[in-house]
Amino acid sequence: MPSDSPLIILAGGGTGGHATPLASLHARLSPHHPSWRWRWMGEKHSIEERIAAENSIPFSPIFAGKLRRYFSLRTLVDPCKNLVGIFQVMWIFWRERPCLIFSKWWYVSLPTIFAGALLGIPVFLHESDSVPGLANRIAGRFAERIFLGFSSASGYFSPQKTEIVWQILCDRFTGERVQREDDARPRLLVICGSQGSARIFSVLLQAPEIFFWYDTTIILGTLNAEYRTQFEAYDVTVYDFVDPQTLADIYARTDIAITRASATTLSELALYAVRMCIIPLRITSGQVENAEIYCTQGHEILDERTFDARTLAMSIDRLASSSGDFETRDDISAAKTIESHIVSLLQRW
């Protein structure tokens, strides 16, 4: 690859909901711009490293420290890790000469953004959530352009920088549904991620009647394998992890979903007009606010601190009996809007 070909740096990760949109953006744009080079910056042995490898994106591991807002002895070490990370990134940038940093979320993006700011490299930022986390609020100060997944997030950034594009979705998600037969059971999907989903699985096992009335598919995530045997005893379809094409096929056949409030997952389900029982993870920035926005569109929201088997079953039954049309939204255009801004920037490069 010629050294004068434009190089775009992808920064961020931490969770699947924030790493997969970066991979989706790469998958949508790279076939149309074969001369563009890509490199992903993230932590070693992380979900972003795995997703980068799965998508054949060159990956550079760097050090990064968390932005803790509680006391921990690690807080004394984290600034040092960030400083080391900044020097790591600056060395890579000096060799590679990138023209743009495209950042999502997570503390791991900050050393890359700080290094880019010191070297005068433009930063584009995508904020998925309705309420930005601390890392993105800091990153927004250095960004030339900020793309938003919710209009409510615009109040946290300079209005001259922001543009609402909604979410960056995988190109395999088309929104085309597969209709079930009239006598078939409603199809229920449980997709709550790996971290923080154990309570939902435990409560679900206390309401086994759900598996009788609903054709159920459960995506456990990589950290919850111990639940597989218990669910399979009820003739439930269980996955530990699914690839994007399999997930698209599952979405196309799903009527109702139990989910956390990751902005990306909510948007994917809404694209397929899936009715949602949303249980936001309260310790994660923006999830409660994301859920409240979707609740105004007719979806259900449960409080993770108080819900139980009875309230969960009642919520699913209400969604199943609802006759209204749930609002859908075409988020596929987000990548096209971002692409136009990247092309415009590269014309100045």
Characterization of this structure:
This protein is an alpha/beta fold and 349 residues long. Helix content is 38%, strand content 15%. The protein has helices at 16-29, 47-54, 78-96, 109-119, 134-139, 198-205, 209-213, 228-232, 244-252, 263-271, 287-295, 309-321, 333-348, and strands at residues 7-11, 37-42, 59-61, 100-103, 123-127, 145-148, 162-164, 187-191, 215-219, 237-239, 256-259, 275-278, 300-301. The protein has a seven-stranded parallel beta sheet with strand order 3-2-1-4-5-6-7, with helices on both faces. The chain has a six-stranded parallel beta sheet with strand order 10-9-8-11-12-13, with helices on both faces.
Strand order of the largest sheet: 3-2-1-4-5-6-7
Task: Tell me the helix content.
Answer: 25-40%
- CATH topological fold name of the largest domain: Rossmann fold
The structural domain count equals 2
Main β-sheet description: 7 strands, parallel
Based on DSSP secondary structure assignment, what is the total number of beta strands?
13
- Specify the number of helices: 13
Rough shape?
A: globular
Instruction: Report the end-to-end length measured between terminal Cα atoms.
Output: 18 Å
Secondary-structure-based class equals: alpha/beta
Unreliable sequence segments: none
Mean pLDDT level: 91
Order of helices and strands: EHEHEHEHEHEEEHHEHEHEHEHEHH
Question: Mind telling me the CATH superfamily name of the largest domain?
Answer: Glycogen Phosphorylase B
The top level CATH class name of the largest domain: Alpha Beta
